[in-house]
Amino acid sequence: NEETTLELKTSEENGLTKATIIAFQPIKDYKIFKLTAPNRLIIDLYDIRPGSLPPTVMVNFEVVSQVRVGWFSSNPDVTRLVFDLNQKAAYRSYLSEDKKILDLEIFTPKPGEENLVVLDPGHGGNEPGAVGSTGLKEKDVNLDVAKKVKKILTSQNIKTELTREGDNYVDLYERSGMANNFGASVFVSIHMNAHENRGANGTSVFYYCYFNEQKKEEIVRQEKSKELANIVQQNLLNLLGLKDRGVQQANFAVLRTTSMPAVLIEAAFISNYTEENLLAQEYFRQKIAQAIAQGITDFITTQL
Ligand SMILES: [Zn+2]
Fold first, then answer.
1. pLDDT (tens digit, 9 = 90+) per residue, 159-170?
2. From the CA of 277, how far away is ligand 1's center (Å)?
3. pLDDT digit string (tens) for 91-117?
4. What CATH number is attached to the domain comprising 97?
């Protein structure tokens, strides 16, 4: 059995660290995420052994101090590259078409290039969304939760915009268009669920995934959307304690036509008596907002 080997090339240009990982077999699967205290960027390469790569590559760049290489696990083989960072950094990654070259750019975001979160309170204006048995309208709950999320994120210095600030109708494509035009890094659509069966209850988060997607950036976006959905769902379950309806795929316009990681949250059922009663209460809407905000910040810290 021929051992898969790896090559690592690093360079620096105007404070931007470039790293090229060359594998002698296609990189079938890999994962990139960040860790803090100390700041690190981790790349796990699946079904690949480190081969003859040295355990430490000193680079002494502005953003990256060194790269550590380890055989993280065997069976399946996982090679882990740890980029030790001198400061918080953002990254971009590109996998070549033959999947043998993974290019990375690691950099400090310039002011104005910080993450922007776009929150999308569903429905509005003459479109109330679902209406509960007491007359509670989904559009009002969505907007209130979105405003609460914005308040929390803004207090943490995360720039946040809403697709609507008031009770007005906004077209679906206008919503995703706003996020795209703003250059948002995260898009979160906020909804409450409804079903003719009033027993239906619980929390779900949706993301878009097209199985035959060919465009590299779009594949990455869909993977990130799934990750965001998982993180937000977990936070909602932890804080709300409602039934776990799972993270699901859906072909919603706002998720399909956005160009950044995007999810649509159905936090609870407005058509369910118990959950409508909860949604009518300020403290519960605040809880939903806290869970969403926590999910977004978790995602930004570890995935962007
Ligand atoms: Zn809705």
1. 999 999 999 999
2. 17
3. 888 888 898 999 999 988 765 567 899
4. 2.60.40.3500
**Centre of ligand 1 from the C-alpha of residue 43, in Å:** 37
Report residue 77: phi and psi, to 5°.
Answer: -70, 130
Alpha carbon of 137 to ligand 1 centroid (Å): 10
Q: Is the pLDDT of residue 3 over 70?
A: no
Same domain, 27 and 131: no
Name the average pLDDT for the chain. 93
> Of the candidates 73, 107, 141, which is a domain's last residue?
107
Nearest to 192 by CA among 126, 255, 242: 242
50 and 87 assigned to the same domain: yes
Q: How is the chain split among helix, strand and coil, in percent rounded to 5?
A: 30, 35, 35
Task: Output the six-digit token pair for 61.
Answer: 């760049």
56 shares its domain with 185:
no
Distance 171 CA to ligand 1 centre (A): 13
Residues near ion ligand 1 (CB < 5 Å) are 122, 129, 191
Which ipTM value was assigned to this complex?
0.99
How far is ligand 1, taken at its centre, from the CA of residue 213, in Å?
27
